[in-house]
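Entry type: protein chain
Record version: 2
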Amino acid sequence: MHNFTPLSGLLGGALIGLATALLMVLTGRIAGISGIFGGLLSLKASDRGWRLAFVAGLLAAPLLAALGGASLPMPAMPANLAVVAIGGLLVGVGTRMSGGCTSGHGVCGTARLSTRSITATAIFMVVAIGTVAIVRHGFGA
């Protein structure tokens, strides 16, 4: 982001919180992205509609923002495709092992004071900090 301000972070966080709260209150569903995507691959057709709408919203939001004149910079990707693919695979495995992703545990679960989600989020953060330290100062430097 080029023009980050604490206010933009506060507003973005409030919108994420509002969206997840509305999804929970109106549908009883948790806004865990990995679970939503995973459910699209299941054979239960009756559960696909809201999941497709959610994913469509994720894809449409930046397009609508760009059409509205927002500047959406593309970050440089310093790693090659193989490293990115392996990283994505590891994230997927970790998501399955922890029973959810950062949005499900970090946003929804911690708001519900779920011990499992608070623990998972703490582990996500420790591993992320360690990964950045290794990549910046270890073999990735």
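Comment: Residues 76-141 form one domain.
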